Amino acid sequence: MVKRMQLTQFTGYSLRVLIFLARMPEPGMATITEIAEFHQISRNHLVKVVNNLANRGFIQTTRGKGGGLQLARPPQTIGLGEVVRFTEPNLDLVECFDPKTNQCGIARGCFLKAALYEARRSFMAVLDKYTLAEVAILPSGLFPAEAQAAPSKPSLEPS
After folding, report:
1. How far, CA to CA in Å, does 152 sit from each of 114, 133, 135?
2. What rounded mean pLDDT belongs to the chain?
């Protein structure tokens, strides 16, 4: 079985919700159902994601007719690293990162741990360089026509 470093589905859904809301025309509100249908993901999963994002102050929710979801802060003030740190339950890459559950017999004399710590710090440092506004740039044809007036930005892909 191939293992890989991977963010949880919860974090992925959280980022998708935030990107969807960042792309809404001003002033705009979206519903959980709209987001679930757009991304073809379970509405029940999104309810948990939305509650979590609202509790942390990333989004505002309004109940009732005319209600919905919207960003609680401007997208340029929401860092990707901040979102990932909040939504990921465990960024421990290996068991020795957590002294409470560590069962590794070589942890005390192992230099791999330092390299993996550095890799995690570097990963988060890259995420910290980007905001929701930067990753919510709208490629043509991926959102309703009224929101496609977003200015183009350079690619985030390495050159």
Report:
1. 40, 12, 11
2. 81
Indicate if the alpha-carbon torsion angle 53, 158, 139, 151 is positive or negative. positive
CB atoms within 10 A of CB 137: 16
Q: Coil, helix or strand for 132?
A: helix
Task: Encode pLDDT of 84-121 as tens digits.
Answer: 999 987 776 666 666 677 677 666 677 777 787 888 88
Domain range spanning residue 29?
9-147
Alpha helices (runs of H) in 105-151, residue ranges in sequence order: 112-128, 132-135
Answer yes or no: is 155 within a domain.
no
Query: Do the beta carbons of residue 72 and residue 22 sit within 8 Å?
Result: no
Number of domains in the chain: 1
Q: Is residue 2 part of a domain?
A: no
Q: How far apart are CA 60 and CA 48, in angstroms?
A: 14
Give the Cβ contact number of residue 46 at 10 Å.
22
